[in-house]
Every structure is written in C-alpha cells, then in structure tokens.
Specification:
Distance between the termini: 81 Å
CATH class of the largest domain: Alpha Beta
Helix content: 40-55%
Oligomer: single chain
Structural class: alpha/beta
Length: about 130
C-alpha cells in the first residue's frame, strides 16, 4: 500500500518551472512594448502628394480647427506643451512626435507647437497628412 502512494507522488508534473517561464515572457513583452500615445481628438488632416509612412511615432499632438492643442486626450496650453513632451519623450527616447494639424488650424500655432517640441529636445518631428 505504501509503494502505491509513493508511486502516485512520483507521477505528478511539477508546473512551477513552466509558470516561471510564462511570467518571464510576460515581463519581457511588457517591457519591450512600445506604447503609442493618442492625441484624443479627431482632426481633418490636409492632403499631401509627398506623404511618407512614419514608423515608431510615440507621441501624437493634435491642433484643432478651434486652435486648441491636445496631447494624451487632454487639452494642453502651449506653455505646458514643452514639459509634457519632455516627459513623454523620456519614456520612449527612440520614438518620434507627429503633429496632427487640422486643415483649418492656424499655421502660426502649428509652428509654435513645432518649436515647443524642438525645444523639448525631440529631433524627429513629422506633420501628419492624408495621402492624396
């Protein structure tokens, strides 16, 4: 009888190593994932014949027709934009920034947004357009 009970214990599968591997893989995928920030509003982007697909855009900033600036689904003042971009760019330094300017947005405001992003230390800045 004792041999039978010992035999049952020996045939159990130890799941601990498999769970360890699953958790390590989960941590790996979380750490290596690139999180895209959403601007939070929809804008009507201008058309361009020379539009090029951008890779690794990590920050989207929208300038609406009402001349409001949105980043991370929140309206942001132009004065606070540089700080917000610095913080988000520090999270993903390899990513770039895309400005989604509405067709009816003030061009001067779009250029001020561009300057604030450049002042935040970001070198890769794109203007989002629709392919013609």
């Amino acid at each position: 009888m004792r041999n039978h009970a010992q035999q049952e214990d020996d045939t159990e599968i130890n799941m601990t190593p498999m769970l360890d591997i699953v958790f390590i893989m989960l941590i790996f995928f979380i750490v290596t994932a690139v999180f895209v920030k959403d601007s939070g509003v929809t804008v009507l982007k201008p058309e361009a014949e020379t539009a090029v697909q951008q890779g690794q855009v990590s920050i989207l900033i929208a300038v609406t027709a009402d001349d409001e600036v949105y980043i991370n689904r929140e309206e942001t003042e132009l004065d606070a934009l540089r700080t917000a971009v610095e913080k988000l760019h520090a999270e993903n330094p390899k990513g770039s920034v895309a400005i989604q300017g509405d067709q009816e947005a003030d061009a001067v405001l779009v250029m001020k947004v561009y300057d604030a992003i450049r002042d935040a230390g970001v070198d890769k800045i794109a203007i989002a357009t629709e392919l013609k």
